[in-house]
Design a protein that fits this description.
The chain is mostly helical. The chain is 82% helix and 0% strand. It has one domain. The protein is built from four helices and no strands. Helix 1 runs antiparallel to helix 2 and helix 1 packs antiparallel against helix 4. The protein is elongated and about 45 Å long.
């Protein structure tokens, strides 16, 4: 089961967070500024915010459970603010798992 390990949980949350970030950047924000529909950003932004918090908590858990370095934690954080970055981390974690 992928949810039974901290790396598996990070992978799932990372993919969901990455999808929500892409939705926010490439769908919600253009709808707000180009179509005048700001409500979409409120909904997608709230979901993305919650997933981002879960992602950071999952990164911290993996860092301590698997004795990762602080540099690895910073790397995982930086990837979370780069579009498609969490998918890069997911591929690396898949090879580790």
């Amino acid at each position: 089961m992928i949810l039974s390990s901290s790396i598996g949980r990070l992978r799932i949350v990372g993919v969901l967070e990455g999808i929500s970030y892409l939705l926010l950047l490439f769908i919600a924000m253009p709808l707000k500024y180009l179509a005048g529909i700001p409500e979409v950003v409120s909904v997608v932004g709230a979901a993305h915010g919650a997933l981002f918090v879960l992602y950071i908590l999952a990164v911290v858990q993996v860092k301590f459970v698997h004795k990762k370095s602080v540099a690895w934690g910073l790397y995982a954080f930086i990837l979370s603010v780069i579009p498609f970055g969490t998918f890069v981390l997911d591929r690396q974690l898949k090879n580790e798992q």
